[in-house]
Design a protein that fits this description.
This protein is α/β, with parallel strands linked by helices. It is about 40% helix and about 20% strand. The protein is built from 7 helices and 10 strands. The protein has helices at about 10-15, 50-60, 120-130, 140-145, 155-165, 195-210, 210-235, and strands spanning about 30, 65-70, 75-80, 85-90, 90-95, 110-115, 130-135, 150-155, 175, 185-190. The strands form 2 sheets. The protein has a 5-stranded mixed beta sheet with strand order 2-1-3-10-4. It has a 5-stranded mixed beta sheet with strand order 7-6-8-5-9. The radius of gyration is 19 Å and the shape is elongated.
Length: about 240
């Protein structure tokens, strides 16, 4: 069961640190970043992505409207290398049970399915000599394995843990262990130091209450469902 959403404490924090140099009515612009984390669809409905929905949760807590922006024009940058982490995971892979590779070393010069913009594609290329094959969404990268377009699919371990346990993946749930010494982190960074401190308090509270985990799990479930739909479509043909 997903933990209940905590609203009162979040709003209290927003009011407590409400002096982040902006009025409640002032818009807060954000850049979603280059890597679409846990993306269910190539062309999602407007605002229906991991980054957009998380940004809007933050905006609601801060009582500020969220508007998309890019680069230097954004007050908030998602998927930043530095800042306040909102997602952390090791990186691992799945392959076909029958005859699929079971180690990263076995993937040298072999195609591996990845989401476009993957921050760890270069790491896997340099360390293991994989040949990346990019897909516009996480769900499509998963299905690339079932289509036989790749020898393995590399994604965040937190996602693959759930995918491997699903009955529709029973023939494709051979695990390749997490990359040793590497941890994938996505963070949000605010241009304004006071706002950055506020975000740190909010995300810390959400991490404790389970609000952040519930958001992550929602998008894991979205990816799993979309992959199921795509797989079912393949089976029908």
């Amino acid at each position: 069961m997903r933990p209940p959403r905590v609203v009162v404490g979040t709003l209290a924090l927003a009011l407590l640190w409400g002096s982040v140099n902006a009025s409640a009515s002032e818009a807060l612009s954000f850049d979603p970043g280059a890597y679409p984390l846990l993306s269910a669809s190539e062309q999602p409905a407007p605002g229906h992505t991991f980054e957009h929905t998380l940004a809007h949760k933050l905006g609601t807590a801060l009582q500020r409207k969220i508007v998309p922006a890019a680069g230097a024009d954004a007050n908030l940058v998602m998927g930043a290398e530095q800042g306040i982490p909102y997602f952390e995971s090791t990186v691992s892979a799945l392959s076909k049970v029958e005859g699929g590779p079971s180690t990263w070393q076995a993937l040298q010069q072999q195609p591996v399915c990845l989401t476009s913009g993957s921050p760890y594609a270069s790491l896997l290329m340099q360390r293991f000599g994989i040949v990346p094959r990019f897909y516009p969404s996480t769900a499509q990268a998963l299905i690339g394995l079932k289509l036989g377009e790749c020898k393995a699919v590399a994604q965040e371990s937190r996602l693959l843990d759930d995918i491997a346990a699903l009955p529709e993946w029973v023939r494709y749930n051979r695990r390749i262990e997490p990359v040793v010494g590497y941890r994938f982190v996505q963070a949000v960074e605010a241009r304004d130091p006071a706002l950055n401190a506020t975000l740190g308090h909010l995300l810390s509270e959400w991490r404790t209450s389970g609000e952040l985990d519930a958001h992550i799990q929602f998008w894991i479930d979205e990816v799993a469902f979309e992959a199921y739909v795509l797989s079912d479509t393949l089976d029908c043909h």
